[in-house]
Structures are given as C-alpha cells and as structure tokens.
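FW: tagging you since you asked about this chain on Friday. Here's the raw sequence from the shared folder, copied in full. Didn't touch anything.
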Amino acid sequence: MIEYLFLSAGAGGAASVLWYVAPAGRGLHRYVVPRARLRADVVRLEREADDLTCALLRVTTENTALSKDRDTARDALKAARARITDLAEQLVTFDSLCAENTRLRADLENARAIRPLPAADDAPTLPQGIPVLPLSEAPLAQPPTSD
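HL: got it, structure written out here
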C-alpha cells in the first residue's frame, strides 16, 4: 500500500518538473527578465559596491589610526616598564643605604655612650701612680688655682 503512495508521489513530482522545465514554450526557463530591470539592478549593485568600497576605506583608515595609537601606547608601556625597573633598582640601593645609615648611627651612639668603667682593683694603672676610679666615685673637678 505504501509503495503505491510513494509511486504516485514520485510520478506527480516528475510530472510537475516536466511541466515547468519542458521546452514547449510554457516552462519557467523561458521567462526573460526585461533589460531595463537588469540595467536598474546593475546600477543598484554598482552603487552598493561603491558604498561598500567607501566603508572599507573608512574602516581601513580607522584601523591605521588605531594601529598608530596602539604603537604609541606600546612604546609608552615599554618606557614605563624601563622606568619601573630603574626605580626598583634605586629602591634597593636606598634600602641598603638606610640599613647602613641605621648601623652607623647605632655605632655612633654606642661610641658616644657614657658608661661607668669597670673597677679593676687588681689591675695596675698606666702610667704608674694615676688613680683610676669609676665615674660615680671620682672626685669633683677642682678649678685651677692661679699662682
């Protein structure tokens, strides 16, 4: 049963194709587009081609300008990275100088510090005969007397 259905559909399709394509003067291949319409299509398509050419040139110009801006930004980025590297080296140098300055200040403060001398009772004084006492036990200085 289904075979007959497919066979009839196939025969109907073949008949319709023959009707539209047959060279008997009634086929669609005989339809001719008027020349005026073809000329109008050519003019319209040439206008569209001109518009697309202008759009392409505009986009190309914008692309060139953006490329120049990108190159300028890339050069500025390269310069900024070089500057950052230089500043990082300066910062390392500055940190080492600060550490050295702190060390030198500590050494200076240690050198300026007044501490009582340890009493060494059994150690002789040099030169002989000069009494050495801790500051807390030292006599107060006497003003010189005029003779």
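FW: Helices lie at 2-21, 35-112.
HL: agreed, and The chain has a mean pLDDT of 80.
FW: great, closing this out.
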